Amino acid sequence: MSNRGITLVLGxxxxxxxxxxxxxxxxxxxxxPIRKIVCTGLSSIAAAQHSLNMDPIPIMKHVARFFLEHxxxxxxxxxxxxxxxxNEGVLLPGLSYxxxxxTFCRSNMRKISLxxxxxxxELLKGDFFRWKDKEPRAPIAxxxxxxxxxxxxxxxxxxxxxxxxVSLSFPGILPPVKFDGRLLVNSSLYCELPLGLxxxxxxxxxxxxxxxxxxxxxxxxxxxxxxxxxxxRGHEIKQFMLNKPDHIFTLYNLQDFHWGxxxxxxxxxxxxxxxxxxxxxxxxGFLALNI
Amino acid sequence: xxxxxxxxxxxxxxxxxLGVLQVFEENGIPIDLVNGASxxxxxxxAYALYKDTKKMFLLAKQAIDTIDVNYFNIFRHSTSSTSxxxxxxxxxxCDIAALKISLxxxxxxxKxxxLFFGDRKFSDTKISFSAVTTDLISRRLMSIKEGRLxxxxxxxxxxxGIFPPVKRDGRLLVDGGVLANVPVREIxxxxxxxxxxxRLIDKTKPKFCNGFELxxxxxxxxxxxxxxxxxxxxxxxxxxxxxxxxxxxxxxxEKALSIGQLQAKRQIPRLIEAINHVK
Lengths: 291, 279
Known about the structure:
The structure holds two protein chains of two kinds.
Chain A: E1 6-10, H1 20-29, E2 34-39, H2 43-51, H3 56-69, H4 71-74, H5 91-110, H6 117-125, E3 140-146, E4 151-155, H7 160-168, E5 177-179, E6 182-186, E7 205-209, H8 222-241, E8 247-250, H9 265-282, H10 284-287
Parallel strand pairs in A: 1-2, 1-7, 2-3, 7-8
Antiparallel strand pairs in A: 3-4, 3-6, 5-6
Chain B: E1 3-7, H1 16-26, E2 33-36, H2 39-50, H3 53-66, H4 84-99, H5 107-117, E3 128-135, E4 140-144, H6 149-156, E5 166-168, E6 171-175, H7 184-189, E7 194-201, H8 211-231, E8 236-241, H9 253-278
Parallel strand pairs in B: 1-2, 1-7, 2-3, 7-8
Antiparallel strand pairs in B: 3-4, 3-6, 5-6
């Protein structure tokens, strides 16, 4: 179809984006040329690592350390990881679940986000800052939502640090970012697979889908039902877009990797690597693209 | 040709639907099928049953005068504040939001629906009618068109977070507006050949005072995408700009109604032309 390489679209919400350290390694090992990487959220760090040809291990360690350092502030987010799934009716986890939901609600009702940019800038300006002048192997396009225009945009220009900031501005967790005269947040809450703005010029388009996995009905509170509706609508939006890619790879059984399980990030990447390697070898649909 | 009318959600702004129906009545627009989600199900159901907008207006007035059906958006415009009362209220709302599945019960909604529909059934309606709900278990839209109207419409108005989902026959039902604000595709499935969709527009600029508002805004963008898909298969879209009306204040029904009436009047010649063109 094309010898210019693929447009690779990275899906996955929350910390599942870290899986793409593994998927990109698999693509690299198979020698599949990548023309552009479209991403949002944590997958942008994996995309940047791949694009700048950096060693993934220390980067993953930095990311995990960052989350572990700020675990206290992100404590309330862990309720979205299903902390109480296996402990129905047990008093202590029940109380913990309630307190987390309440903290999440109180924080979000009072301020724009749980974390501030000062915390992230420390990370970005420290070890990642040396990335800023490097020439990328494959350009990265970050999918974001322009809050003033109320639509999805694809950020092609700007430094890698600018793109990472926009990409990490997960609504409710980090404040929106002002960039290029626009107020932007990452688009993963709108659609976890950022395919919306791709066109025929981007073909062949290959998407990596990581199903959210929080499909089980666990509706104990208003926060739960609103989060469920949000996930349901996000899933529907994703369905509208699934006819766009020329091929979709799906990474399964990654639902155990959620907020709070930061220590498991390297494991998440290695499971994704194994799954991706095996799918790249076996997928007739992908091989038929003749890349 | 079967003409279908699809009425959408919008809370109290949905009283504008009643104004639209008055204009339809005055102009003799023939409606063969009606469906609706949320407030659209209430107004649509009442129209299908009585086919008399004057009676509907009196019932609405009676319901609002005697039953408190107002609700408020718990996440709107709240910020950190030094005011003790404001802080106390935010904390109280968060405590409830973390503990209960909904802010309100169905008690007053059932009273209001009883006043509108009593024991009447779907089979008693003069026009074929279906109430559109979202089943959280199958994650699909579902049209209810059998049984008591009150029982069918109640799940269609169960706005998640405000009212509890309705458990029925192994399903968990909420407002159809979750997946289709104006359920045009559903009325097509019921056999409508020409669909009029009434779109309630709210051009109010969003504010991003807190994280919830940001998340809710992104959710509204998804909502917009669903609407686009529904409106793509409508034959005529009747736009009613309800900006400035509070969707939780049902006692503002007279203003919503007159907005619906005024704006529908302007668009009625175009609608008649479209219907005649297809006939």
